[in-house]
Amino acid sequence: MSPTRRLTITALIAALCVLCLGGSMVLPGITLSLAALAGLFPAVTVISCGYRWAAGGFAGAALLALLLLPDKTAGIWFACFFGHYPIWKGLAEGLQVKLGRPWLGWGLKLLGFGACMLLLYSLFGKLFAAAIAFDFSQYPAGHWLLIGVLFAAFLAYDIAFSILIGYFRAKLLPRLL
Length: 177
What we know:
The chain is an all-alpha fold. 84% of the residues lie in helices and 0% in strands. The chain has one domain. The chain starts with a helix and ends with a helix.
């Protein structure tokens, strides 16, 4: 594929990410869901153009979302986790296949998720708490319960993400190329 075509695909996908994140201005109640949805688009760049192009597209989309959108919440979620997750997922699963260790991919993905959530919580604690509608602090082991719920949600997101990637590769990609 020519560099011009790769640039075009990457720019279009970055624009779709920003458009999806901008939907949080119209539907503020589903900001986290829109950030997760926008996080699916960089996977198309990873599959079609490679990791370097996907990293550039992610950086451009995150920067545009943080600069242009009046509500930065979706942009922060995208920049801190959902936008770069397809790149991290692809690298972790590629390393898992290369080394023949099935647990390695899951371990790297869980480690990356934990690091992202810790960073997000450290920098934007109130934003993090606002995204979670349930107050876990009222329970004795509330923080551990919150961590368990977050990791369970991440596992469900990762499995659904893998299913969507498989569908894209099998049904949509042959029609696009």
